[in-house]
Backbone:
């Protein structure tokens, strides 16, 4: 059973966090303090929660990005914006999600999230974006 969860953890982490831009995952800081607890956290979060199929990987990442934007967790948001792009989320949809955050968390949270999105897109070589013919 442990081998199966370890395989799911590694496969899910690879899909989410390898590629795009180089960001150290949270696992590394956890591991620096407690290697066994870091494994347990990683197995639960990445191996169990993030590998569930009720939501698509894109839906799960968009939810994570919205929540992280609302609580203004900038570093974790960078990690998950990159992961969202890695699993195929449309940058326009991420921006729209961040605009939606205004209703619940205010414009400073929106501005910070959009700034993170632009930084990640820039580091991935995807900014500036091509103009939308409908918006000019």
Residues:
């Amino acid at each position: 059973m442990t081998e199966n969860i370890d395989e799911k953890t590694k496969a899910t982490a690879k899909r989410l966090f390898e590629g795009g831009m180089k960001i150290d995952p949270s696992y590394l800081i956890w591991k620096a303090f407690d290697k066994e607890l870091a494994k347990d956290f990683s197995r639960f979060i990445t191996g169990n929660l993030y590998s569930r199929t009720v939501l698509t990987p894109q839906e799960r990442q968009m939810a994570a990005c919205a929540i992280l934007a609302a609580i203004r967790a900038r570093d974790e948001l960078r990690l998950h914006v990159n992961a969202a792009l890695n699993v195929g989320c449309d940058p326009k949809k991420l921006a729209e999600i961040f605009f939606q955050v205004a209703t619940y968390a205010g414009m400073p949270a929106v501005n910070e999230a959009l700034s993170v999105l632009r930084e990640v897109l820039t580091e991935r070589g995807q900014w500036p974006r091509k103009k939308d013919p409908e918006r000019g």
